[in-house]
Amino acid sequence: MPSPSPSTAELLLDVLELTALSATSTRQLTADLRDRHEGACGLGARLKGGLDILEAEGFVEPTTHLGRRLYRATALGLQTLEERGRYPNGATVLFTDLVGSTALIGAHGEAEAHALRLRHFALLRAAVVRHGGREVKGLGDGLMIVFRAAGPAVACAAEMQRSVKADEDGLGLRVGLHIGPLLREDEDFHGTTVIVAARLCDRAESGQVLLSGDVREAAGAAAAAAEFVGDLELKGLERPMPTYALP
């Protein structure tokens, strides 16, 4: 039996939630809305009007990648979701770290080292966009990224390592991922989930992606080949974290 069509207010909140942690195309938004409201009619047409409203009110912002127009929630949009109890309870957090960055200047000089860093982060950000992540902030030698789902996060991490390994500059990269609830402050995120992802990144070796057991379980096929490396003691956590590495 077809589900009733969502009200305009419900539709707008749905769109905000779907764009909260990733830049998303209208095509993907339409597919996600149809999954949520199976059998409801006219969602594609209503989505266009809803995006116009959200953009005009400053709740979403458009961006363009490879000729595609994408949308993501702004800080105001995230605040609105949270006030209405609709902010996603969990997300996958990904941290990266450039290995040996301090040695770059000594080996190449400041100007060339800066160019190498820019190239490195361009490769990482290209993977983030392709897999629908949201860059939260740069951390000097790394990035903090959030994803709505674990599968795309794991796929992004794997692509990051492939891109860096294939790059002629030969810079090292380590990555850590964890999934769970987030605490938001403006456009930044905090809490245990963030801490665990950062600690796993710190423990990874150059060229390695470490993910928590929760990420491996949630990611399904994307992490099926991940190998158990042990229950790691992570600073600040009471219990060891079951940890896996992508091959």
Descriptive notes:
This protein has 247 residues and is α+β, with helices and mostly antiparallel strands. The protein has two domains: 8-83, Arc Repressor Mutant, subunit A, CATH 1.10.10; 91-245, Nucleotide cyclase, GGDEF domain (Alpha-Beta Plaits, 2-Layer Sandwich). The chain is 45% helix and 26% strand. The protein contains nine helices and twelve strands. The chain has helices at residues 8-18, 26-36, 43-56, 75-83, 101-108, 110-130, 150-166, 192-203, 213-219; strands at 24-25, 60-65, 68-73, 91-99, 134-138, 143-147, 172-180, 183-185, 188-190, 209-212, 227-232, 241-245. Strands 5-6-4-7-10-12-11 form a seven-stranded mixed sheet. The protein has a three-stranded antiparallel sheet with strand order 1-3-2. A two-stranded antiparallel ribbon has the order 8-9. The mean pLDDT is 88.
